[in-house]
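Subject: Protein record for review, amino acid sequence with backbone structure tokens
Why sent: The fold of this protein is of interest and is recorded here as tokens.
Enclosed: The protein record, placed directly beneath this head.
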Amino acid sequence: MTSSNKAIYAASLDPITNGHLWVIEQGMRLFKDLVVAVGINPAKSGKYFFNEKERVELAKSCVPEQIPVMAIGPLFLVDFAIRENANFLIRGARNISDFVAEANMAEMNRKMAETRGFSLETIILVPPYEVSMISSSFVKSLLGYEGCKKEIEQYVPKQIADALFLKGTSK
């Protein structure tokens, strides 16, 4: 397989936040082709607020339409990258803990790709302060409080805040 200038930004996106959107914007600047991939973390199995289909649809509602958004499904990210012929992964690291975890994951993905005869590199981006503290977990933790929708809208696009509020108040 030949090398490509295509990248994948994979994340759980439960839900997609302004921090995720910042990484996607940078990916669009760095790569001709970018795929946003909604993944499943086995450690979080059964703990997702939105199911995989909902996460894909919500991400599509925020991402420019020329950027494909798709589910990884049961594949290893490496195998998804091979299927998509993408030689780069883009990741965001909000702090030193994230950076260490991402660097370790990058090395494991590189090794797995090599065993499959594929070249896969990871580019780790450090977001600006304005979005560096936003996490999907933090956003979900705001649900249930009086005035939470207004607070949530600071960290996610409006349609995501609406979806969170609708699902969060119906549970």
